[in-house]
Amino acid sequence: MTHDFPRMTGTAFTPDWFESVSVNRPAAERRAASLPARRTVKKEWQAAWLARAITCIDLTTLAGDDTAGRVQRLCAKARNPLRADLLEALDLQELTVGAVCVYPTMVPHAVKALEGSNIPVASVATGFPAGLTPLPLRLAEIRYAVEQGAQEIDIVITRELALTGQWQALYDEIRQMREACGPAHMKAILATGDLKTLTNVYKASMVAMQAGSDFIKTSTGKEEVNATLPVSLTMLRALRDFRDLTGQMVGFKPAGGLKTAKDAMTWQILMKEELGTRWMMPDLFRIGASSMLGDIERQLEHHVTGRYSAANRHAQA
Question: Which of 91, 147, 163, 167 is least surrounded by Cβ atoms within 10 Å, i.e. has the fewest?
Answer without folding.
Answer: 91
